[in-house]
Amino acid sequence: MTDGTLTTSVASRSQAVRLAPTHVLFGFVAIFAAALVGLSVGAASIPVSGVLLELLDHVPGLSVDSGLSELHQNIVWEIRFPRVVLGLLVGALLACSGAAYQGAFRNPLADPFLLGIAAGAGLGATVGFVFGLGDGSGPFDAIPLLAFAGALFAVVLAFAVGATGERGRSSTTLLLAGVAVASLLTAAQTYLVQRDTETLRQVYTWILGRLTTAGWTEVVVVLPYAVVSVSVMMWHRRALDVLAVGDDEAATLGISPRRTRTIVVVAASLAAAAAVAVSGLIGFVGLVVPHGVRLAFGTSNRVVLPLSLLFGAAFLALADVAARTVESPAELPIGVVTAFVGAPFFLYLLRTSQGPR
Amino acid sequence: MTELAARGLTVTLGGNVIVRSVDLSVSAGDWLVIVGPNGAGKSTVLRALLGLVDHDGTVSIAGSDASTMAVRERAQRMAYVPQNAEIPPGTAVLDYVLLGRTPHLRRGLYLGDEDVGIAIDALDRLGLTGFAERDLMSLSGGERQLAVIARALAQQTTIFVLDEPTTALDIGHQQHVLATIERLRVDLGLTIVSSLHDLTLAADYGTELLMLADGAVVANGAAADVLTPEAIAAHYGAAVDLIEHAGRTLVVPRRPEM
After folding, report:
1. What are A308-323's pLDDT values in tens digits?
2. What angle do CA B43, B45, B47 make, to 5 degrees?
3. Does the structure's ipTM exceed the value 0.90?
4. How confident is residue A161, by pLDDT bands cut at 50, 70 and 90?
5. Are strands B208-213 and B31-35 parallel, antiparallel or unpaired?
6. Which of A96, A237, A357, B242 is 20 to 30 A off residue A325, Cα-Cα?
């Protein structure tokens, strides 16, 4: 290679898609801002500046007087902090799994909620409660594992039904299958609960989610699943870009489409199930966030997956703020907030994306 | 030296035998053109060579059994230019060409400066230098086909498999694309297997021809031996004249008597 071409290639390096550091920074700023709002806003209003100083005070080596009363300090650290952290985690997981499903199925409308994954996780957890297999505490309790199995079952069922037939890739077919699977699994769940009313409360508390009462226990439950599933999804982000040219071409480019799809779908289902296990049914995050990221930063999965993770975290933390302030002092379920934002957006996408892809 | 060979290649799809016991071999640096009427199994043979369909019989690449190769290893040796390449939305031409680097990437993930250099070199060779940052969607059909070939070139394989590379193109772009492939073959010593509809072009570009009908090989060899009026009548149901003109063989359909 002559010096001339070497210069060209280095200069042109910037033309190739890469995750821009400024975009990542932007994502972290969004997370930080959302967390700050989440820590200040609530039944007891605590000034943002005070929260900021309080956070600084906890940076090792720094000592700042935040001016917050002991009560407010306790609210920030004991009540709001774990909830904000859990919201960030759940949002990151839902958005990232949505982006991963969209890439793996080459379907812009794939979403953990719409594919029936949440319903599957709910059924799995219900089976656990009804048969007394676990109580939902700790990361390796039977409940999250059963939720994961249920989630995976739902997505496999939806994809098997929705992707059969000629060319099989119509967005709407997969969605309809997801709706049908969700209804079926929800019916099965209701049936189980009705037969065993003792567990009714346990099941519904689980389904409605516990962001409200979230503590560090929930964070610990979700964290190992989050680390594993996110690592796997990130690891395959380039492979998903290759899958975008279709299975045949991907195979001739050295990617095994079936294997890649299986791994990514399992990881995304694990992420979605873990999120559902601690937060209940929260829809549309996996749809709204990746699409927003695509519009703002480009369509390559190398960009969409990591940025969905960051902005999904910020998005859900803010949605949680809305959930607990709109009807204050009462709290709205956070799924209601995301549905208000997400459902109209989904209808918009449905109208603008014609047929396959 | 034989670069690519198939022996007893048989493909059965849904109980129908699509390809029956096809033998073929291509020497390094040659261009084998597969011709045959619609539904003769041309695309399926190419797909079997690429390992995209289950088949009986063996495919060997430079003497090694391809069935023992991992997907990635095969992709380092054989590149594919499909009839209608899928165009992922919102993809810049350079990024598309960089997909060709996939089988060479460390852990399948990280593009180095060298990879970008190779992709840019491929764009240069195909006259697409100025298009690097353009959205693939905004290119014309002919330019897109060149971008797909650039992607194959970035794959740095010795074998190119092209399925009807000129089907959707007008006569000018057909000429340009085929001349480009021919230039790459000569300059880089590529071994090429392609299907082509146009028999005149098949005779022009193929160093060797293979005619398929109903999934089986009915003729194989030099253009003059394969493209006979009898064979074309028997397998295409077409009445043609073969006209020798300026050292070329032109296959011209006759106008039916009214």
Report:
1. 999 999 999 999 999 8
2. 70
3. yes
4. confident
5. parallel
6. A96
Indicate the pLDDT class of residue A7, thresholds 50, 70 and 90: very low
Residue with tokens 């002991």, as numbered in its chain: A70
C-alpha–C-alpha distance, residues A309 and A306, integer Å:
5
Residue A136 has what pLDDT? 63
User: What does the domain layout of chain A look like in residue ranges?
Assistant: 22-352
Q: Which of A253, A255, A291 to mutate to test the interface with B (most CBs of B within 10 A)?
A: A253
Contact status, residue B212 vs residue B45, Cβ threshold 8 Å: yes
CA B155 to chain centre: 15
Q: What is the reported pLDDT for A251? A: 95
Residue ranges of the alpha helices (H) in chain A? 3-12, 21-40, 48-57, 70-74, 81-105, 117-130, 142-162, 171-195, 200-208, 216-235, 237-243, 247-252, 257-279, 285-297, 301-325, 334-352
Instruction: Average the pLDDT over A35-51 and give the result.
Output: 86
- C-alpha to C-alpha distance for B66 and B68, rounded to whole angstroms: 5
pTM of the model: 0.87
Q: Is A3 on the interface with B (CB under 8 A)?
A: no
CB contact under 8 A, B89 and A246: no
Task: Find the CB nearest A255 among B85, B94, B102.
Answer: B102
Domain B1-62+158-258 bears CATH identifier 3.40.50.2000: no
β-pair type (B56-61, B16-27) = unpaired
Domain A22-352, CATH homologous superfamily name and number: ABC transporter involved in vitamin B12 uptake, BtuC (1.10.3470.10)
Nearest CA in chain B to A258: B71
Q: Where do the structural domains in chain B lie, given as residue ranges? A: 1-62+158-258, 84-156
Q: Which two tokens stand for residue A155?
A: 């997505």
Task: Report the residue count for chain A.
Answer: 357
